[in-house]
Amino acid sequence: MRAFGASLLLLALLGCQPQSEPMDPAEIARNNEAVGLMGQYRNEAAHAIFTELAQRYPDQPVLRSNEAIAMLNRQTEGDEERALKLALDLLQTHPDHLPALYVAGLAHLYLGRVEQALPYLQSVAERDRHDGHAAYFAGQAYAQLGRTDEALALYRQAMAADPYLGSAYYAAALALRGRGEAEPARELLADYQRLQGNPRAQLAEFRYTRMGAKATAQVIGTPAEPPSPTASGVLFDPAVLITDQAASATGSLLTADLDGDGRQDLLLIDAGVLQLWLGEGDGYAGLVAPTDLPAGLRTAAFGDLDNDGVLDVALCGKQGLSLWTISTDSDWSPRADRLPESTTVPCHDLQLFDADHDGDLDLYRLSGAGMSGELYNNNLDGSWRALSSETPLLAGPAGGTRQLLVADVDADRDLDLLFIGGAGNVEWLRNDRLWAYVEQTLDAPWQAGWTAAIAVDLAATGQPDLILLDEAGQPWVGQLPAGSLTPLATPNPLRPALDLQSLDIDGDGQPDLLLRHADGLTALSRDPQGLWQTLWRHDGPTAAALAVLEQPARGYSLILAGEQSEQSGLWRLPPGPGRQRFLAVAPSGKQADVEGMRSNASGLGTQLRLRRGTHWTVAELLDRNSAPGQSLQPIALGLGQAAQADFLELQWSDGVMQTELALDAGEVHRISENQRQLASCPVLFVWDGTEFRFVSDLLGVGGVGFLLAPGVYAESRPWEYFRLPDDLAQVQDGVYRLKIAEPMEEAAYLDSVQLHVYDLPPGWAMSLDERMHTGGGPAPTGAPIYYRPSQSPGLRSVLDAAQGEQLPALHMADFVALDPGPRDPRFLGRLAQPQQLRLQLATPMEATGEYVLVGHGWVEYPYSQTLFAAWQAGASYESYSLDVADENGGWRELYRQFGYPAGMPREFALPLPAGLGSTEALRLRGNLEVYLDRLDVVRREAPPPQLRHQVIAPDQARLERIGYPRRSSHAGKRPDYDFNDRSPFWDTRYPLGQYTDFGPVGPLLAAVDDGFAIVGPGDALDLSFSAPPPPPEGYTRVLVLE
Hints:
It is built from 12 helices and 66 strands. By secondary structure, it is mainly β. Helix 3 runs antiparallel to helix 4 and helix 7 packs parallel to helix 9. The longest helix has 15 residues.
């Protein structure tokens, strides 16, 4: 069995080798270009360059080992043997070349020749004890030979060489468990699990960048570079007065782009009054605040509440909550939302975040000590729902709440709630999703004495740390779920702090802390030993402090409400020369040219992992300032002296991963979520005589755990009959070749596969009784439906109620589909208005006939979270219903929500009830985003006597690693996959668990039983079926995969 954890994109460091002969600088540049192509998984293009260079410079071992590495990763048939030969040829002239030894060992191991692999791998592991991957693969070879002691020694060597190599921990745990040493095995598995989510963690696999440095293509002749200049000077330039308006200690200072000009503006709420300043040039200009705002304001939170691309603000004060929209000319207008009565309760503080990860922003109201709070669900239809009556824990601690901290405390990809209660107690509500929260028990030190908290990933491990202030104003570091609490390690005592925030001040890529005291500010930075040093200090009474991103290249400015040089007012401290480089990121779930979205338009809750060289920076777009209110601005990430980030990995609030490469310093990178399928179904490729061609997906009817509403899941049907397009599959060496691949973040459990071959005599056609059944009409049987087009009614008109006549678009399945109409911008896969199609028969039905509606098309699937969001908003998804025209000119319902084509392009059929008489018209209606490509009404008949039907089991079935074929979309959102353009990685994770070994899996597919071939992301079943002799001339061959 294979075991996989979370998948992370890791770029291997590229080493350098001495040159045996001088190379032309242009040729060195070509080699290094090919190394870059390998980093983009363009292995074929890289191999061509390496081959040309190796032939030109045969005495350059690096070029020849690069050629072998590219060959090993090219993924075409026979490449492993060819890579092995290249490596062995190189060892004839360079017997000590470690990459060649390593590639030879890996190739033998991959091909199952373990005894031949072992000497090569053992040699590399002995010569370079710092190479964890070499030790791991050598250990794997020993383990496969049953030599557990030697394997364990090498796994331990791998862990010592690379403590983040998770595969070594897992393999060692399995070996110990096999020897009956349960407790040491459990300890190693716990270590392995702790690495999950850590961006430094690695897995060892037969994939490029996962096999280690010696199986990674190497650059040649790194040119000498002058040392990078280090920043010198102050971190903040002298303060500049914005206004002499003084602020009290209860003032709330916030920032957002109020006028949409790309610059941050300021908002100050003090003594119940709101004041505004717009960013202009190098400073700020006062703006008259709206006069019709509620009195007694306390603070505010900014975000796009309806995902329309326009900024909204939630105001919080003595009169409760009110919601406003801010236009680009800074005009404030009240929103017409339908708010629960409890929103009139006085508001002390608030937070906007996507609590249920359904693609919109929800709102939590705090009412201070002694008063309960409330979480309001955004229904995305202008209404909000208070949730504490259903989930009492959401009211917060019994004594009221001082602060709410929103963070993924346990790193399980959803947002938890941490309350600091009126008594200074910390309460943690773990998000169990779908509005289910579980209160976690915390030890006594957490139960009293805390005033404020923020979450920040100090060591870039993927697990957030908590920085808390005690009642003496001293900072502590806490970690959950472990429950540890320790004072912040500082060389000197700190002034009592009132609040704190996290940001990178100096641009080194490490999070710093900014503490506000009554008499000033202190910035702390953490050294490599974990000690905190004073980075910067400001003296003078300070009522409020806010980091504002004014200059992306230089990082944050500070806006202070306080006293400077004995002058009270609002002050601006610009970035000083003592900083390194920055870039800024402004993520958004909204794409301008895409209908529908899955994450909120403000990007709140997006997790960021930035890589530059060997350094990671981990951050997230959530409020990381313990003071009241919530600003909205891009997040600045320090780059040190790097001119760009190598890559940025985003995890959106809907769980989708996305990677952006080579982001330049000094810019605001506004990144929209790629609206792509995270999960769907296995996909089918067929050999068409030239290449493996994508056909469609399979088993859309068999999805497990597809949520329809809380506690309601779609029925999973474990079988399907899929008709292949006519004449697509071609015989190769006497067989039909098919591949069932998993290119998404899911696992497929395949139990039985057969190929049906139907040879139909001239004049006959067939369909299958197949569709996604949603309750209406007869359940599908998968049975063949035989008909003769010449004896069938056919259609003479298909009238779309909104678009007119559409018969030409639906006459044949040619991938030119009918546009179903405007989409609901809130929910993927749902139309703004129901589609209605009137089908006029070319000839009336006969009373004694059996008739079938046949179609072809595909569907834009919603997701569980989308359906959950729609359920909350009272917006239903309605599959196709079928009506028949009655004698009075009206319509009579035949089947209510009978279903739809279950996935990517496919044929579907619906048997019609008997007794329809001389019906001439039918009507389809529904609001799913279905793209119909063909519609017809046919007359079902008994099988023709000349029919030939054979059922063929696979001659050969193997599970193999193919990587991820490139996905693209055509008109009508029709998906396509290019098997010839595959990457070993994609922005996806492996669902944790056990998978079937690569290799022959025929017995697992022979019968419907309890033996499954479990196929994971990037894997595929390679199937061969013996092809029967060709049918007689004039016959039509139809292939059906069961």
